[in-house]
Amino acid sequence: MARAAQHGSRPTIRDIARVAGVSKASVSYALNDRPGVSEQTRARIRATATDLGWRPSAAARSLSNARAGAVGLALARDVRLLEEEPYYVRFIAGLETVLAAEGLSLLLSVVPDVDAAVRVLRGWWGERRVDGVILTDLLADDPRVDLVAELGIPCALRGGIDDRLPTGGHLALTVETERQAFTDVVRHLREQGHERLGRVSGPRQFQHTRRRDVAWEEVTRAAFGRVQPVVEADYSSSGGLAATRALLAAPQPPTAVVYDNDVMAAAVIAEREELGLRVPGEFAVVAGEDSVLCRLASPAISSLHRDVVADGARSARLLLDVLVGRASEASVAEPRRFVARASSTRV
Q1: Could you give the CA distance from residue 140 to residue 75 in angstroms, rounded to a whole number?
Q2: Which CATH architecture has domain 179-306+338-344?
Q3: Given a cut of 60, is residue 162 above it in pLDDT?
Q4: pTM, rounded to two decimals
Q5: Residue 51 main-chain phi, psi, to 5 deg
Q6: What's the confidence (pLDDT) of residue 286?
Q7: In angstroms, how far apart are the furthest CA atoms of the chain?
Q8: What InterPro entries does the annotation carry (predicted)?
Q9: 3-state helix, strand, coil in the chain (%, to 5)
């Protein structure tokens, strides 16, 4: 008798492949009556599926007829940034936890800009290589959104501004909020005695940067009577260091800086002596995502925690809803949660 999936969870195609000793592709061929496996192997796979108690999910049944069995993600980012930035590995891990359970593959392409991403997406859809796509890092005026609307490509959009992007039909949207996260950070930093703050943002072409800019302006103006300065960077370690030097060169430099990602904050911690900063103590550092970089740094870096794996899983589930025809309201992501560590605590 085949061994059932662990913890009483619903058996997946991956479980069947493991027990039957075949690939996931072979399982898909066998269970969907497609060529590609021998009749003996097909019978063995089906027997294993029965023993495990496998039943096709609603999403898998809806996708089984003449579909590609794949979801597309075209990242429009500099590959050099991906060498440093842990965000995307975590986001993709979240996507895979959902897609793999449904027997769907992730088709990934990294391109230098959104125009290249548009060409990739158009090609995938024209060749029927994907059943839908996930868009992330949306621009303020994003041609990818226009493309999926024009062609009717099923799509999950990650990180829109409030309700300015359409939902329903072939689109689903994840909305993020920022005000409470910045409120908690500013309160903590003031409690530690900091009255001059700064922020190093990501590129302002992104919707999520503009959303954070609005929240930062509102929160710091309410707390200090004036907006605290922001310097734009590109999320890289070198960009974060250059932006920090620009803040420190001001006549009244900040004594605490909030960074929009972890790489830039970790770079400042690593180079604090060269920058002439005493951390912890006189200068405070707060990072934007709470990856493992924050916990491994010395001192450990305070951060605005976000569950990026859960964000990826949420995007995948939204797309599956679109693919099976379930109407989807805008999904509100969990707000980032402030976690205080040594880098922002006076000693």
Answers
A1: 16
A2: 3-Layer(aba) Sandwich (3.40)
A3: no
A4: 0.77
A5: -60, -35
A6: 97
A7: 78
A8: HTH_LacI, LacI/GalR-like_sensor, Lambda_DNA-bd_dom_sf, Peripla_BP_I
A9: 45, 15, 35
13 touches 32 (CB < 8 A): no
Secondary structure in 3-state letters for 23-80: CHHHHHHHHCCCCCCCHHHHHHHHHHHHHHCCCCCHHHHHHCCCCCCEEEEEEECCHH
159 — alpha (psi -120 to 50), left (phi > 0) or beta?
left
Our CA dihedral for 287, 290, 293, 296, rounded to 10 degrees, sits at 110
Domain coordinates in residue numbering, the chain: 6-55, 70-175+308-333, 179-306+338-344
Strand-pair category, 132-135 with 331-332: unpaired
Look up the CATH architecture of domain 6-55: Orthogonal Bundle (1.10)
The two three-digit tokens of residue 195, written as one number = 């009255």
- 123-142: per-residue pLDDT in tens? 998 888 999 999 988 888 88
CA angle 91, 179, 75 (to 5 degrees): 25
DSSP letter at 236 equals: S
Predicted local confidence at residue 6, as pLDDT: 47
Map residue 235 onto helix, strand or coil.
coil
What is the predicted pLDDT for the residue at 37? 73
For residue 301, the tally of other CB atoms under 10 A from its CB is 27
CA 306 to chain centre: 9
What gap in Å lies between CA 53 and CA 2, rounded to an integer?
A: 10
Sheet with 132-135, edge to edge strand ranges:
105-111, 70-76, 132-135, 155-160, 171-175, 331-332
* DSSP, residue by residue, 156-178: EEEEESTT-S--BTTEEEEE---
Alpha carbon distance 340, 304 (integer Å)? 9
Q: Point out the least confidently predicted range of 19-33, 57-71, 213-227.
A: 57-71
CA atoms within 13 A on the CB side of 213: 14
**Confidence band (pLDDT; 50, 70, 90) for 217?**
very high
Tokens representing 2?
């085949």
The CATH fold of domain 70-175+308-333: Rossmann fold (3.40.50)
